[in-house]
Amino acid sequence: MNDTFDHVIVGAGSAGCVLANRLSADGRSTVAVIEAGGKDRHPYIHIPAGYARILNHRKLTWGFRTEPDAATGNRALEYPRGRVWGGSSSINGLGHVRGDPSDYDLWAQKGCAGWGWDDLLPYFKRHESFAGGGEGRGTQGPQPVEHLAERPELLDRFAAAAEAIGLPVNADMNGPRREGFATFQQTRRGQRRISAARAYLVPALSRPNLTVIDESLALRIVVEDGRAAGVLIRRGGEERLIRARFGVVLAAGAIGSPHLLLLSGIGPAEEVARHGIAPLMDIPGVGRNLQDHYIVRLTYRLTDHRWSANRRIVWPRLGLEVLRWMTTGKGVLTWSPGMMSLFARTEPGFEAPDVQINGGPLSWQDGRIGVPETEPGFTLGVWQCRPQSRGSVTLKSPRPEDAPAINPRFLTERADEACVVRGLRLARRWMAAAPLQGVVAHEVRPGPQAESDEALLAVAKATGGTVYHPSCTVRMGGDAAAPLDARLRFRGIEGLRVADASVFPDIPVCNINATVLSVAEKAADLIAEDMRR
Questions:
Q1: Tell me: the pLDDT tens digits for 420-457?
Q2: Is 275 a catalytic residue?
Q3: What keywords were assigned to this record (predicted)?
Q4: For the chain, first and last CA: distance in Å?
Q5: Cβ atoms 231, 242 nearer than 8 A
Q6: To 5 degrees, how large is the angle CA 514–CA 515–CA 521?
Q7: Residue range 37-63, pLDDT digits in tens
Q8: Looking at 42, 96, 259, 469, which residue is catalytic?
Q9: For residue 482, what are the CA distances in angstroms to 24, 470, 502?
Q10: Whole-structure pTM over 0.85, yes or no?
Q11: Binding-site annotation, residues
Q12: Is 356 in the same domain as 422?
């Protein structure tokens, strides 16, 4: 088997699938994609509601947990990351959400020339195929995006309640205005999830210049004479060096990319040396600046089962839903954890929403996704859009098969504590609005006993968790402390790039998958430009 390629991509997640497709499209450049997981054969991957069964699947995910932190009750939080073709786009909640334009303009202001909203909009349009069309939307891209296949009646009441508290209702959540209420859009075609693997990788597999090397663990980046020469992998117990003529692109995600750099001796020298790894480059910024959204869930009781799907997702009614999904492509099997979203500014003067509230007409026993409550209910998840808390990804061990230490440091800034309390109060005000009277019976969790700011913050610290949006751990920037320049090139090592959520200078206000696809689309253009020089 050939072990030398023009481009070697590490990771077949959202970014890696985009890069594999675009860089091999010329028919001449040879491309290898290294993926630790296997093919996306599991049936639950392709059923939208299957996320509830695979979010922590022992083979399809990495099984990560965070390090305990006093700010969040000294809990080790589950931290799902996909380990399969499509990566986290194969296990996520299918949400397709653009950031606020100011997110990307702030990137440009931080020295990331070419990454403002006007620069990135063409890439958002390029990657998506949104049948609804509309201002600024793409209709011819590889990634299908659709409105909900089924719009539960309760969502209309939520929309009316949003208007009642002074917030607009948007027909297109990815249209010109982010603030307000909108129903979710999904990375779905008809009845099936369309992950990045299905949108980008699988259609390109017939190209003879594209090779997927899956079930392979990347051990380290090999650097020769200051240049990334390839990636050492272990496959089936055998180690092999996959060489790169032009370059190596890390697309292993905001956890995997810094982890591989650290294993290669690229990062804070003291840290890597402490684990017996010879420091190759002292780059303190690798693995730092971890940002993520922290979600706190509320559960409400509804007055009647007509408003809730709780009984529809257990047997025997679930059998009818399976039949409905198979024959019509509708029903609860097409649902996401987030069916609608409310973006809002909880204080005057903010240039963008500071709180996002998602939810749908399902409620879970003990508030954990998986087993529905027997009584009718729904769940709301509240999170801060632009957290100020910063965490890290560091080594626990020099063994590549061992997980890194993931420290999100949620709620370690006072501003974040205050924002989550404001968000919970906004959710309560929304649910108390007149259009929901006679529909919403009462709040179950946290309940009326959590009334003061101190009590709400205590609930947030004791019960919250990740929204699965890790980012910013190998950031680009115009300052010398940024590991990457604005062309996503690693400073000090030729032929090495990073092109995934790691590169964000700051997290956008929303779910991040659509931004990752756009970053990877732009990265492919940057690499192609450099090849022509």
A1: 999 999 999 999 999 999 999 999 999 999 999 999 99
A2: no
A3: FAD, Flavoprotein
A4: 30
A5: yes
A6: 95
A7: 999 999 999 999 999 999 999 999 999
A8: 469
A9: 29, 18, 11
A10: yes
A11: 84
A12: yes
